[in-house]
Specification:
Blueprint lengths: L1 E8 L2 E8 L1 H15 L15 H8 L5 H18 L5 E12 L5 E9 L12 E3 L7 H14 L2 E5 L8 E10 L2 E14 L9 H5 L7 E7 L12 E15 L5 H7 L5 H34 L7 H21 L4 H7 L4 H29 L5 H15 L3 H7 L2 H20 L1 E3 L10
Parallel strand pairs: 5-11
Antiparallel strand pairs: 1-2, 2-4, 3-4, 6-10, 7-8, 7-10, 9-10
Helix pairs in contact: 1-3, 4-7, 6-7, 7-10, 7-13, 8-10, 10-13, 11-12, 11-13
């Protein structure tokens, strides 16, 4: 095999390779052996036609393209790997030339890993808020806890705002029931604004067993079929229930926690909320630091790296949807688009993350960061504990090289964050109305 030329333009490399006859012949013979079982030629049983007969009928070079596929790993090793070209994505065969003496010359194009020039990544200024928890947040958590232990009871009186009305209902447009307008044993919190404006207010005053027609006009911005229409809902009130929320006092604190007083409970809520807020701020600060370091990096991003990151983000989002009971196709249609539209929506984030990835990889190189065998083993142990699995099982599922790469990336992030200068967020400018 002879490398005739190697030319690099930007992130694309073109390699012209001349393949010797012996190697090409081995590929062609393998392609013929695979293809002949499906070829029929008069006078021969299926799969028994000689190669020369097939070539005489279909052309002397009928097996050449498939033959190249057979020997491509050897070609790739010589043309790309041994030349230390950091190819990414799938190489393309852009030209095939066969000379009169059957010498095959091919042209391979491939994107390669880009040249990366780091900008400032140490000592960069990044905004970081201070963790704080308001009295309102503490009260909101107390309210949530109180609601969790609240009791309900059925009352024999007319429905009032704040009650829960269990109702059967059906909507009619000019006497004809419309789709989506029917429900049975539906619990409606009066005053919640869950239904069309004017509906809940007309339930107030009804008593259990009472039936009533309610006149409603749908808003102009409602679903197209019903927007602006005046309809009638026939409603039956089955029962009225009230929620008894306990008073938030020392007895309440004893019932819902290990604390003796309400003040102790409040202090615990505040401390935990502050810890959560601090973790969120630290995470946002870390992300902002990496993004700013990436912004300072000079690199011409290859399409292959962006598309690969886009694939990863789509895969992760698809998994999240699957856990929620949705498919990607269904979600895309629900959002008024298709898979191609959704992919384009993810592209800006993928482009930003791909640039952050090459920035971190370059920092690993420049800083000489590496993960030791001990650190890799500790990470496997941590994962085994987290997922309650045998460590050897984890090792069969996750390659050690993947763990090593993840640890080194974390170290690169730490280099940026530890050297960053946290500054107070700028006050939002008030606009005069």
């Amino acid at each position: 095999m002879n490398i005739k030329s190697t030319e690099k333009k930007g992130n694309e490399v073109t390699v012209v390779v001349e393949i010797d006859k012996e190697l090409m012949e081995s590929g062609v013979q393998k392609a013929y052996m695979k293809a002949r079982k499906n070829i029929m030629i008069p006078g021969f049983r299926k799969g028994k036609a000689p190669r020369k007969m097939i070539e005489a009928m279909y052309g002397a070079h009928v097996f050449y393209e498939d033959g190249l596929e057979e020997i491509f790993p050897e070609i790739y090793e010589e043309a790309v790997v041994k030349q230390e070209l950091k190819a990414i994505g799938r190489p393309n065969l852009t030209d095939l030339q066969i000379s009169d003496d059957h010498i095959v010359t091919i042209t391979i194009t491939t994107e390669v890993y880009p040249e990366v020039t780091l900008g400032d990544y140490k000592g960069i200024e990044v905004e970081k808020a201070e963790a704080a928890v308001s009295d309102e947040q503490v009260e909101a958590e107390l309210d949530r806890m109180a609601q969790n232990v609240a009791s309900t009871e059925t009352v024999e009186r007319a429905a009032e705002m704040g009650d829960t009305a269990n109702i059967d209902f059906e909507g009619f447009d000019n006497g004809v029931a419309f789709e989506g307008g029917k429900g049975e044993n539906f619990d409606l919190k009066l005053g919640s604004g869950s239904f069309v404006p004017g509906f809940e207010e007309q339930i107030v005053g009804m008593t259990a067993g009472e039936e009533k027609d309610i006149d409603i006009t749908f808003p102009e911005d409602y679903h197209a079929e019903l927007a602006g229409k005046a309809v009638v809902f026939h409603v039956k009130l089955n029962k009225v229930t009230v929620t008894n929320v306990p008073a938030k006092d020392d007895e309440f604190a004893k019932d819902v926690s290990e604390f003796e007083t309400l003040e102790e409970l409040k202090a615990d809520i505040r401390a935990k909320a502050l810890e959560t807020a601090q973790k969120q701020i630290d995470s946002a600060f870390e992300q902002a630091c990496v993004e700013k370091a990436a912004e300072n990096t000079t690199v011409e991003m290859p399409k292959a790296l962006i598309e690969s990151e886009l694939d990863n983000q789509m895969e992760r989002f698809g998994y999240q949807l699957q856990m929620s009971g949705y498919s990607m196709d269904a979600y895309a249609k629900m959002m008024g688009g298709d898979m191609a539209t959704m992919r384009e929506a993810f592209r800006p984030a993928a482009e930003k993350q791909a640039k952050a990835n090459v920035t971190l990889t370059k920092i690993i190189e420049v800083e000489g960061l590496t993960a030791t065998e001990e650190e890799i083993e500790a990470e496997f142990e941590s994962m085994a504990k987290q997922y309650d699995m045998e460590i050897e099982k984890i090792k069969t599922m996750v390659p050690a090289e993947e763990i090593k790469s993840s640890l080194e990336t974390r170290k690169a992030v730490k280099v940026i964050v530890d050297a960053a200068v946290a500054v107070a967020p700028k006050a939002e400018e008030k606009t005069e109305e």
